[in-house]
Structure formats: structure tokens, C-alpha cells
Amino acid sequence: MTFCMPMQRAGKSVVRRLGILLVCALVLSGCDRGPQLLTVKAVAARVPSLAPFFDEESGLGHDSTVRRQQPHSGLQAGNTPGLYGGTRKPTICDVNRLKKFLTDPRNDRKAHVWAQVLKISQDEIPAYLDRLTPVLLRHDTLVQNHDYKKGRAAPFNSLLEAGIAILVDEQGLPAVKCSCGNPLRPFAGDASRISVKFENGNKKWDGYDRASLVAVKPAPRRIEQLALVDVDNPDRGITRPAGTTGAHDSPFDTHERHKVPEVAGMGFGDASQRLADKGLAAAYGEKGPPPDDARVTGSDPAPGTELEFGEYVTLSVERGTAGKTGRGSGDGTTGETGEGRTGGTSAPPASGSTTPGGSGQPPPSSGGATTSSPPPASSPPSSATSGGPPGASRSSGSSESSEPPPASSASASRPPPAVSSPPPAVSSSPPTSRPVTSAPVTSAPVTSAPVTSAPATAQPVTSDPVASDPVASGPVAGEATSTTTA
């Protein structure tokens, strides 16, 4: 008995230890289920970089203080009116000084690395800088930053505080941080899975709000001029031609009202650009922006509604094209930054209300409601039939053709009917009135000759198979859904 007691105690101790190890293993396995948080280093305004490309004490650029704006979503197009701010002071960014520094033979190594980051050749640096435009951030903005360490570029994800001076390229993407000359690239992570680190003098700034961070995706086409808000006087706007530093600025009144243009029937990218030309911003209701070629079916507010500069117009696009978000407009951002606050899952109808939002019910389609009856079997579906872009109708057809057509299974199970009693859809009705499954394909001639003049077995089938017709139970490409963009 005296020998068994220690053995029992030892057994209980082992069991207890195994239980603790099992609990730890379960906890660790649960922690590994979700993706790891992406570390993002905060970069505050007027705080020098630890390893800059350019000596910040030389006055290459100067940050400012701005009033932070609440963005409509976490992903903004580079041509969004009011995305960036400006000032009438000429010292925001000295592009000529940066050009001299990077073309100086003594800085050849830095220039070579700098050009590599921006995917240009070293000889292209002067011309590239001439196409950039100085602006001030109006939002805390996510980018991929680059320090210069040991002769190489050291990339890191960073959050630039609103008020930092940067240079943007011809599509509105951040390209250079002015004060240190560090090259910038689009943020390529998921903004909903980040951990912002405030360190090395970059203390958490006043007004910091995790829900107000933005990333920038490229504009749908080259920007001719940027519509900025004067950070010293928000009632005044600044029109700055791309590639200029302020000498050719022209002011405008930010309270002047602009009519919402007609954009139904346009691609999403072209519609967004038309709104931007009017000083209005495009919004979308989905988690990510639709592809640029997604067909717009309506807007909220409706065309003709007057809005002030920078207000948002929610665009609705066809359901068949809205899901194919090629976020990738060349930027990692882009979907990249799918914050859960990019708008929700449904957009408001084109009801003519003056603010984005609404009931969330999809508006009626502005075109192509012909999908309730199938098209003729002798003609394949086209973009005109589906109401969407050519690419959308082709993709819809290809997805449906992978399923076996109903008629083929019927023909395999029973012989074709006698020639003397052809299906009425062939002899007397237009193709659109014939149900898709009314007869096997091989049983009816499709030529203009009478049915009784040629047996069905001797006449080759010249029409497209039934599988080319849209299946009534499949997705309707002309049906509209709401999406929003900013």
C-alpha cells in the first residue's frame, strides 16, 4: 500500500500535465486559424525619417496641418475630387532640388535604387519627376514606404498622417514623400488586418481614427488636372494642372453646386471620370469597387440633382459584372484594402435623394429587361440582349455551357418523333416562342424548307445547339444591383 500511493500521485501528476499541454495546444491552434496582422509603421507629420533617401534638414518639402476628412470608404480613386489638399505656398515640395540630387553623380547609387522602386530607368528620373504633382494628404493614408539602408531600398508598410506633403503620379497615386524623398508605392495589404505601430518619435496624433484610414487606387485614366481643397481656406478649391507645382493654379468656390450628369449605360470607370470632371465623387455599395467596364444602370442622387464640390454619387451597376472586381488596377490596393467599412453589401436605389445611402433596395434595370423570354435558338446571345458589356455576356454564356443541355438528355432516352408531326415551334411559331426543352435538337430541321419535304435524319442541323441559349434558371445579366465608389 505504501508503494502504490506514490505511484497513484505520480499518475495523477502526469495526467494533469498532459491536460495542460492539450489545452495549450488547442489555444495555439485556434490562434492560427486567422491570418496574421500586418504591421504598419505610423509616420507622423514633421517627424524625420531614420534612414531617408534625402537629407530632411535641407528643406526639400514641408508638411502642414489640415482638417481631417471622414472618407466615404477605405479605398479612394486617385482622381477623387478633394482627396488631396493644396496650398498657395510654393514651398510644399521642391521638385527641382530633388531632381538635382538624384542626377548628381555623387548620388548615383541612391538614384539607381530610387528608380528601381518606382519601376523606371535611372535615365527617366528627370522626365518622371516633371510629371509628378505636389499635394497634401487630407486623410491618414496607407502606402508602401521605402527607407535607404546599406545601399538598398528597405520597403515597409506605413501610415502617413494627414498633412504630409507628397508627390502624386499621373493616376493620382502617392509616388514620393516630399520631406525625405522616399519613393512610395500603393499599399498591398488588407486594411482590416493591420496593426499600426507608433514608435521612434511617431506618437499617436490627435484625430487618429482607425476607421478613417484610406488607401489609393489609380484613376481609370491619366489625370489632366487635380481638384484640391485649399488647406488654409476649405471654402476655396484649387485646380492644379498635372505636372505643375502651383504656378498655374486657379481657384474655385467649393460651395458652388454642380448637377449630377447622366451616366447610365456607361462603364463604371468612365462614369466615375465624368463625375470627377463635374467635381463630384463616385461611390459604390459593395465591399470593393466594380471593374471599370461594369455597366452603370443608375445613380443616387438622380441626374440633374445639384450637389456641392466633393459630394458622393452612388452608382449602381449590373449584377453580372459587379462581382468581377479586378481590383487590381495596378495597385495592390486595392482590394486589397477591403475594410469592412467600404460601404456595405447593398447600395441605395437611384431615387434622387441628396445623400448617399437609402433603403438599400436595388433599382430597376434601366435597360435590357428581355431576359424573361429566351432568345431564338438560331442566334447566340449578344451584349445587346443581356444589357451588359460584351465581356459580361460572353462570360455568362461560358459558365452555363458547362452544364449538359436539357435537350441532349431527352434525345438519348427516346427516339426522335415522326416527321409527319413536327414540333409546332418549328413550323408555325417564331423561335422566341418555342420552349427550350420542347423537342430534341436532332428532331427538327432548321432550314427554310417545309418540314415534310425533307426527313429530319437527312437534314443537317445548321442552328446553334440549345446549350447556347441562356438557361432560364441562371443569373440574369441585365438585373441591376447597387454598388458605390469613392
TrEMBL record:
PROSITE patterns: PASTA. Residues 61-88, 233-254, 282-486 are annotated as: Disordered. Residues 323-343 have a biased composition (Gly residues). Residues 344-354, 380-413, 426-463 have a biased composition (Low complexity). Pfam families: DUF6777, PASTA. It comes from the Bacteria. Residues 414-425 have a biased composition (Pro residues). Gene3D superfamilies: 3.30.10.20. Residues 254-319 form the PASTA domain. Residues 67-79 have a biased composition (Polar residues). This is Secreted protein. It comes from Streptomyces avermitilis (strain ATCC 31267 / DSM 46492 / JCM 5070 / NBRC 14893 / NCIMB 12804 / NRRL 8165 / MA-4680). The lineage of its organism: Bacteria, Bacillati, Actinomycetota, Actinomycetes, Kitasatosporales.
